[in-house]
Amino acid sequence: MKNFIGTQMIYTYANGWEYEIYIKNEDTVDYRIHSGMVGGRWVKDQKVDMVKLVEGIYKVSWTEPTGTDVCVDFMMDEGRVHGVIFFPKWVEEHPEITVCYQNDYIDLMKSSREKYETYPKHVVTHYAEITYVKNVGRDNEEIISQATYEGMTDEIRSGSFYR
Ligand SMILES: C=Cc1ccc(O)c(OC)c1
């Protein structure tokens, strides 16, 4: 786990959805969704379960205030990821409600999950290819600290984003 903590990654799922995660510490991630059904959503301090399955392969799992459940396997030596996302029915029907800096809208996520329908859930499962990986150290609040914009991931990959 030592090497994995502090890792920032950008990866693109086979359906084209581009995601970014920062493994902030043993039980916390920050993430930013650059494109896809809920592109524009970003989250800090999501509490997660994290386990090393075998050398170089880590599973990160969590349940969100929206009711969305996520389980992602990071295969660091292959540069690949496998993600499973269990969306409540309401997120698939009203994805725009979840497209925000979630930390400022926790009460809206909780009221929406009661107001709208949960079932049947919408399960999305895909492999992804890692397009950027860097260990930036633990507990860094600057890695994911603003909303995405067109071109951000290219800037991160080219090294021009963080100055
Ligand atoms: C729903 C959030 C979600 C789903 C899949 C992911 O790979 C992810 O990484 C940050 C986040």
Automatic annotation (TrEMBL):
GO terms for molecular function: carboxy-lyase activity. CDD domains: PAD. InterPro entries: Calycin, PA_de_COase. Pfam families: PA_decarbox (PF05870). It comes from the Bacteria. The active site is at Y19, E64. PANTHER family: PHENOLIC ACID DECARBOXYLASE PADC. This is Phenolic acid decarboxylase PadC. It comes from Propionigenium maris DSM 9537.
